[in-house]
Amino acid sequence: MARIVDYTxxxxxxxxxxxxxxxxxxxxxxxxPGMISxxxxxxxxxxxxxxxxxxxxxxxxxxxxxxxxxxxxxxYSPSYGLPELIDLLKRRMEQEHHLTDNGVTGWxxxxxxxxxxxxxxxxxxxxxxxxxxxxxxxxxSGSLAALQPIGCNLVGIKTDADGLIPDDLERVLSSWPFxxxxxxxxxxxxxxxxxxxxxxxHERKLRVYELARQYNLLIMEDDPYYYLQLPxxxxxxxxxxxxxxxxxxxxxxxxxxxxxxxxxxxxxxxFVTGPKALVERVQLDQQATVLHPSGVSQAILYTILSSWGAxxxxxxxxxxxxxxxxxxxxxxxxxxxHLQGLxxxxxxxxxxxxxxxxxxxxxxxxxxxxxxxxxxFVMVPGKPFSTSDAPSPYVRASYSTSTDEEMDLxxxxxxxxxxxxxxxxAQP
Length: 428
What we know:
Layout: H1 13-16, E1 53-56, E2 62-65, H2 67-74, H3 83-97, E3 107-112, H4 115-126, E4 132-137, H5 141-147, E5 153-160, E6 163-164, H6 166-174, E7 183-188, H7 202-214, E8 218-222, E9 253-258, E10 270-275, H8 276-288, H9 295-338, E11 343-344, E12 353-358, H10 365-374, E13 380-381, E14 394-398, H11 404-422
Helix pairs in contact: 2-9, 4-5, 4-8, 6-7, 9-11
């Protein structure tokens, strides 16, 4: 399959009707030296009451946001994102994913209000009511919440501990009636999948990409846990796995990333990377909704990342990796202590979640939504992650915020609840 040149057939009817904002198109012109603008409705920056923002980092360092960058942060800014942050992100994408070296060209970046916002906008760009969309089974509930109101049909592809199963994807595609049932998009989370905690192996990524080429699909690579790849007994040293974007010589991958798990979820900064024509459509959606993501959040992020440099960035990632590894291991120890014979699970190699299959339980929904709350612990039942709202024996447990002692107590309470539900004797 040759590189995609014309994306018209991939663009939804809604998105194809979007036109650039005449006002938003003026924004890049304001950066031209000597330009006098009487065109925009920008408020007078001299009346903004904020003079500087000072941030104390936990390392003991202080960073300040002042002068021209603060002025930009407080004012309306380009819909693609602050130019300073865009430039930094482009350099980082090249360094991390070796895009040019791998022959990946013609790409762009758009900053959004968290990656969830980017996903929602991309779904709007690519999917019509009545279309069919390939997703993992189970699937991230936040994406289901964005997809279901569109009125599209979800086609679940089976997964296991190594992520989406290419054989099942090929089984579906090889017999798909493309002429009568529009199918153009595959959505997946390759690392630490939410909710299952599975991670797509490199070999499977290669095969998934080849199938996308063979059947002319776009891939939405949602990867918020890319930097939360964790060591396991089988892989004691973490080497971040090559991404689908890094393989994309055709221009068929949109990649979504987030700083929520690395810097702050409250800053609400994410971004989408991919073919310029598709990223432009996301940006047009942004023009018509939020105009642009928070300039203050972008400037704070840019200032922190710039002050860290490459060494500080890797130090932060290592601290995250070490912390989540310890917490994951604590939850797994608790499961081994309390849930033997009551549940099945695998140790995730990325992300924040363990996906428990409750033995002898047909549907965990009422058990977890009602009875678990009465026992004073919270997990998430599997049903909300189902593409068909089918009963599910699974539950999702997060190890990201609770202490080792709290996790152990919660798992013990789950074990007690399961024994009671199944009529088993209490643990001695």
